[in-house]
Amino acid sequence: MISLEFRRINYRFSWKSSIIFIIFCPLTAFCIIMITNYFWLYFFPLYIFPAGILTSIFVGKICTISLNTNYTLQVPDSVGVYFTLGCSPYPAIVLFLAICLIAPHNKIRGMNKNIWKRKILTFIISSIIIFIVNSFRIAITIYLYHIGTPYYPMHDILEYITTFIAVFTFFICTYSWLPEILISGIWNIESIKNKVSKRHSLEIKNMSHQVKKIKINYILLFWMPICIFIGTGLSILVYQKIF
Q1: Residues contacting residue 209 through CB under 8 Å, at least 6 positions apart
Q2: DSSP alpha helices (H): ranges in 147-179?
Q3: Confidence (pLDDT) at 108
Q4: 211 pLDDT above the threshold of 50
Q5: Bridge partners of residue 67, in order along the sequence
Q6: Residue 207 has pLDDT above 50, yes or no
Q7: First-residue to last-residue Cα distance in the chain
Q8: How much is the pLDDT for 228?
């Protein structure tokens, strides 16, 4: 069995937990969105009002918010923008929730101390940050539209920037409080390498110092954030196209 050491804590996972994570993480996020899709309008003001306040500050006018089929944020005597669920941070927050809920647990007995507290902390901090970033994104988008910038190219660019910030924030939160998510991926890679090379045991000691030798540093700080960013971006885009 492969055992990884990170921050003086040994980690060991199982293929079963990894398969469950890969399959049920997107399914859980999809189910949450479908269940809440019918009453999200009741909670949308929690998001649209802060964005409206920021927009009013940016444009120097008191903006109005109305609800017909969708919520609309209107700049007096100027532009108005309506919002869908895909415009909000909700899809990303739901995905973060699913990842935290189904994150693999360390199989070494006694090494899962406070894991649910760490899951909750990771989810709350990352959600608050993405909520704030999205509010600023909406305000900046409407302000640029207000001064004459073409809407859709600017909207898409800011959306990708926001997605990157969201994923980077979630990566930092998981690295700080819930490293099981990242280390389980490394464990799977090392397990596959171990099986291919027909080695029956492998122990990586002091990961922080051995990282250069086995290139885990590049996985942690480069490849994984990019993979998560691409996956999150595709998930949000697919959701917007479907719903």
Answers
A1: none
A2: 151-177
A3: 81
A4: no
A5: 71
A6: no
A7: 44
A8: 63
| Close Cβ partners of 75 (under 8 Å, ≥ 6 residues apart) | 55, 59, 61, 63, 142, 146
Residue 202, H or E segment? strand 202-204
DSSP state of 148: T
pLDDT tens digits for range 116-141? 999 999 999 999 998 999 889 988 98
Q: Where are the domains of the chain?
A: 2-242
Nearest one of 121, 117, 42, 128 to 93, comparing CA atoms:
128
Q: Is 237 exposed, middle or buried (0-12, 13-18, 19+ CB in 10 A)?
A: middle
Give me the half-sphere count of Cα atoms (radius 13 Å) on the Cβ side of residue 204: 25
Nearest to 163 by CA among 233, 77, 70: 233
Using the predicted structure, report yes or no on whether residue 104 has a pLDDT greater than 70: yes
Q: Are 136 and 55 in contact (CB under 8 A)?
A: no
Assess whether pLDDT exceeds 70 at residue 23.
Answer: yes
* Cβ proximity of 92 and 166 under 8 Å: yes
**What is the C-alpha to C-alpha distance for residues 158 and 165, in angstroms, rounded to an integer?**
10
Say how far apart CA 180 and CA 187 lie, in whole Å.
10
Contacts of residue 197, Cβ cutoff 8 Å, sequence gap at least 6: none
Computed over every residue of the chain, the mean pLDDT equals 77
Determine how β-strand 64-67 pairs with β-strand 80-83: unpaired
Residue whose entry in the numeric block shows the structure tokens 């949308």: 44
The candidate with the shortest Cα–Cα distance to 232, out of 90, 91, 125, 128, is: 91
Q: How many other CB atoms are found less than 10 A from the CB of residue 176?
A: 12
Quick one: tokens of 22?
Answer: 């890969």
